[in-house]
């Protein structure tokens, strides 16, 4: 390896694919809403996270007289991380625990999380940069695993009616 | 060893340069907003009647440039081959094989006359400033919408960078099937008048400036409370009631992550919502759930000082690339400041 450092570096560069630095990590799945919730909770557990609580945005909106489909947020974290971060970086408190929003959109379910990397420039710290990167990596892996549970098939485009529908 | 490295190189080169799969890329990067079959959702519908008239170049540039302040991000890190593959996939939805191409020849109209025509014929949907009158960007999140398709913001650097004059002209002449956008014939516009409108739209380019609000603001607002922990919490709850917020049961920060007996009871998160406001904001930005609900966290330090921690909505709203949300977030910010003032007075 020492003999061909240039070649080795080139091979690494070719293998490395830069991650898209999107502000949101999103996934659309065709599972039912309830199954999606269960699946996400299972995957969070696999990655060592605990669900702290679930915010039922839909219930609040419905109680206030608004028509809405299923819409919930899952708050999750790791106790040691939470205790350390709130003590060392209290300015991070409003952003904790991290969360995933899950919303029904007609026959599919949308899963969205704010990309933790987005917080990196807002909270400049080497330790936090590592933390945000770890969260991003875990979220992407969790979303990927949830995505893999459904079969990828070419879909036929659906054409909209030419009249305007009032929903 | 040399052979092994060469093999790694070749394998890596092969994986990078294999023809990208448009369906997979669309599913990964686009379907979350535009839906798997292009029927739209958070994003606009892209299905057949739309792509039928879209020039390839317009789609390529739209993916690259995004729509500033209109949710659609700029996909700058996708390779040209990947963007091409996505566009190929989108164009495969077309029912015809006719390729739509428009020359880059600028339209030579009179923007001053075009402004008057735009205000008369187009502003009702596209807004007097060309930034669209529709709320939100997509079609629906299972909620009511005035239009099935939100009229696009024309005064937007992404749109103006992607659409050339001839393509805009074609759209004004033919209208848009499947939407309420009328044709030149229906509007009884002469060819010169169409040219004037196009030239006026192009003149927006000189006005469009990037959104750079709140760049220097802190992401978290921190306030000292002159009261003790319990009194501060009581004050906040009273203020929340006064400001018409509904508050949820108290939660310590660590609750749910460890046994309740072990949680730090000097970190209490007061979570609240005004559902009228929430409904309005979710219509503008369906993904808002990732930062909900509104909260003020009360923390007592080892020295007994009580501090309040609040997310700065003005800063966080930038993450959504949604100019309408940024405006709504500023209103929300003022309400939160009113709350803090009352609670710490």
Description:
The complex is a heterodimer of chains A (167) and B (345). Chain A is an alpha+beta fold. Helices cover 39% and strands 21% of the residues of chain A. Chain A has a single domain (22-148), classed as TATA-Binding Protein. Chain A contains five helices and five strands. In chain A, helix 2 crosses helix 5. Chain B has two domains: 19-207, Cytochrome Bc1 Complex, Chain D, domain 2, CATH 1.10.760.10; 220-344, TT1751-like domain (TATA-Binding Protein, 2-Layer Sandwich), CATH 3.30.310.70. Chain B starts with a helix and ends with a helix. The chains are: A alpha+beta (167), B alpha+beta (345). The interface between A and B is large, with 83 and 85 residues.
Low-pLDDT sequence parts of chain B: none
Strand content of chain B: 5-15%
Counted beta strands of chain B: 6
CATH architectural grouping of chain A: 2-Layer Sandwich
Number of domains of chain A: 1
pLDDT averaged over residues of chain B? 87
Radius of gyration of chain B: 26 Å
- Class by alpha and beta content of chain A: alpha+beta
Radius of gyration of chain A: 20 Å
Could you say what the CATH architecture of the largest domain in chain B is? Answer: Orthogonal Bundle
Residues in helices of chain A, as a percent range: 25-40%
Bulk shape of chain A: globular
- Tell how many strands the DSSP assignment of chain A holds: 5
């Amino acid at each position: 390896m020492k003999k061909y450092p240039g070649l080795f570096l080139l091979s690494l560069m070719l293998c490395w694919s830069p991650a898209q630095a999107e502000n949101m990590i999103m996934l659309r799945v065709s599972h039912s809403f309830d199954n999606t919730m269960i699946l996400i909770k299972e995957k969070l557990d696999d990655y060592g996270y605990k669900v702290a609580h679930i915010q039922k945005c839909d219930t609040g909106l419905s109680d206030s007289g608004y028509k809405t489909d299923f819409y919930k947020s899952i708050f999750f974290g790791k106790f040691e991380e939470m205790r350390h971060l709130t003590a060392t970086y209290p300015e991070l408190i409003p952003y904790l625990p991290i969360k995933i929003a899950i919303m029904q959109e007609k026959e599919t379910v949308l899963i969205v999380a704010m990309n933790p990397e987005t917080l990196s420039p807002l909270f400049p710290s080497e330790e936090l940069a590592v933390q945000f990167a770890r969260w991003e990596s875990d979220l992407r892996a969790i979303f990927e695993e949830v995505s893999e549970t459904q079969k990828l098939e070419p879909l036929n485009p659906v054409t909209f009616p030419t009249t305007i529908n009032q929903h | 060893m040399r052979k092994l490295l060469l093999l790694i190189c070749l394998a890596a080169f092969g994986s990078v340069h294999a023809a990208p799969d448009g369906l997979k890329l669309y599913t990964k990067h686009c379907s979350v907003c535009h839906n798997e079959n292009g029927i739209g959702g958070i994003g606009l519908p892209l299905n057949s009647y739309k792509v039928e008239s879209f020039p390839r170049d317009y789609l390529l540039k739209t993916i690259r440039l995004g729509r500033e302040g209109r949710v659609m991000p700029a996909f700058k890190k996708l390779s040209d081959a990947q963007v091409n593959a996505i566009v190929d996939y989108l164009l495969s939805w077309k029912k015809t094989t006719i390729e739509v191409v428009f020359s880059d020849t600028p339209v030579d109209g009179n923007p001053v006359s075009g402004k008057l025509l735009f205000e008369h014929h187009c502003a009702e949907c596209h807004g007097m400033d060309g930034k669209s009158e529709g709320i939100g960007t997509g079609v629906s999140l299972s909620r009511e919408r005035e239009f099935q398709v939100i009229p696009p913001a024309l005064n937007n650097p992404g749109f103006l960078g992607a659409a050339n004059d001839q393509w805009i002209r074609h759209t004004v002449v033919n209208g848009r099937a499947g939407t309420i956008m009328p044709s030149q014939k229906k509007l009884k516009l002469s060819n010169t008048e169409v040219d004037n409108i196009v030239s006026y739209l192009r003149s927006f380019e000189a006005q469009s400036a990037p959104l750079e609000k709140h760049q220097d603001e802190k992401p978290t607002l921190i306030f000292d409370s002159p009261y003790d922990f319990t009194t501060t919490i009581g004050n906040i709850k009273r203020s929340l009631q006064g400001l018409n917020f509904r508050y949820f049961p108290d939660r310590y920060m660590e609750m749910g992550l460890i046994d309740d007996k072990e949680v730090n009871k000097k970190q209490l998160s007061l979570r609240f919502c005004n559902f009228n406001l929430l409904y309005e904001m979710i219509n503008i930005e369906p993904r808002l759930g990732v930062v909900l609900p509104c909260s003020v966290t009360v923390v007592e330090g080892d020295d007994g000082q009580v501090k309040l921690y609040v997310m700065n909505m003005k800063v966080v709203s930038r993450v959504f690339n949604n100019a309408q949300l940024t405006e709504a977030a500023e209103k929300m910010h003022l309400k939160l400041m009113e709350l803090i003032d009352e609670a710490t007075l």
